[in-house]
Amino acid sequence: MSQQSIIGRITQLARANINALLDQAEDPQKMLDQMVRDYTSAISDAEGAVAQTIGNLRMMEDDAREAQSASAQWGAKAQAASKKADEMRAASNTTEADKFDNLARVALRKQIDGETDARTLATTIADQSDIVEKLKTGLQDMRVKLDELRRKRDELVGRAKNAAAQTKVRDAVKNLDILDPTSEVSRFEEKIRREEARIRGHEELAASSLDAQFESLDKEAGDADVEARLSQLKTGRAADI
Length: 241
Fold this sequence. Notes:
Elements: H1 3-14, H2 18-24, H3 28-90, H4 94-178, H5 181-240
């Protein structure tokens, strides 16, 4: 994966509008679970790519330091060769003087090449450092977004569980309304009342029958009194005669 594609992928994921995506989702919880997996996988890939980019940057920095060090060493060698050439020329040893001047020239070319390499690497290092910082920032944004996704998912799962619990309670209440135990108690109570009423009816009926019997006895007693008095009347008249 190239650096630009890494940056593009990180930027795309970091800028994702979670709420807008959830509004379009048929099953937000499943979508969030999938997004968490995708983000986790993308972050893992990005971390590997960013680590490699940082590693490459550190290698270039090492190369730049080596180029600078080599350039400095060649500069020192050029200076030493030039000094030796001057000494040889002062001693009228032109051949040796030219030899050391040639060595100085070779060293100077190496020094210049080292400086050129160091400048080129410095430009590349600056560009790579900027890219690395962007990658680090994007990666951090992705981690923040992943935390947000997980919170959203956990919140949604919690709300779903609460909704399910409320549905169970509501269904239980409906079942209680349909099979209201108080209505069963009321029916049972009504049955007992009817039985009690029936018993009272029998008792009243039995009492009515008993009262009739006593009324009959009272009537018979009254009739006996009448007959006794009638007998007395008859007996009295017979005595008078």
